[in-house]
Amino acid sequence: MSPNPRRFGLRWVVGTILVVAICSACVAAMFWQLRRLDERRAGNALVRARAGEVVDLPPSGFDDGVDEDALVYRRVRMRGTYDTDHELLVRFRSRRGLPGYEVITPLVTDAGAVLVDRGWVPLDDGDRWPVASAAPPSGDVEVEGLLSPAEDRSPRISRPTSVGKPPIIASLDPPRLESVAGHRNLYALPVLAAGSSTRYPAPVDPPDLGEGPHLSYAVQWFLFASVGIVGWITLLFTRGPLARRNRRVRS
Fold first, then answer.
1. What span, in angstroms and rounded, lies between the C-alpha atoms of 54 and 67?
2. pLDDT single digits (tens) 138-171
3. Distances in whole angstroms, Cα of residue 8 to Cα of each of 2, 16, 20, 88, 230
4. Nearest CA to 47 among 75, 66, 78?
């Protein structure tokens, strides 16, 4: 019994539609990765431009309705005194694969208080806080650092269970920490302090300015689409309807 030509033809039509749909999705994914790459490059350029010059702490950061996007990643300097009575520890922070905390200490300036991320300490040191080697300098100090984005989620504050241990928080968002930080009208953004000469707190790594895997992913999606198109066209000409048509023409 000879095969039904209509059924056989429909199978190739459906196959072609599927291949076109899949390859179109691969091409769309490729362009999406390229757009992400452009966004990453633009963001990196913005960080480099803002961090290239050190400026005094922008006073607008204490105003209501401040445009945080216009301030983030600027390198600033400020003078004040550290308030060690209201230190905070941010949990679930790792450094080079080791678990630990980031130490947050309010810096009291003439304009108001700023939450300064002084760096990372190992889990054991955070659990037996305070650690003398991780104490901030006393008296009037000058601090230089990078304005970091606020972590816009619930801080989930855990009150200390032992004397001398600071509250532990899950995220760093100054407006939500005014009560536990002991200061009202906190600066809108936390400051990631530059590295110090002490072992701990170890400086937190600055923002990653790499381009990420977006370009390699875009190349992969392009190859997937190319293989699908070329492979299906080859199949049409070797085993599909186009191959039978060529045989009929030669005969």
1. 19
2. 899 999 999 988 887 787 888 766 666 788 899 9
3. 11, 13, 19, 71, 21
4. 75
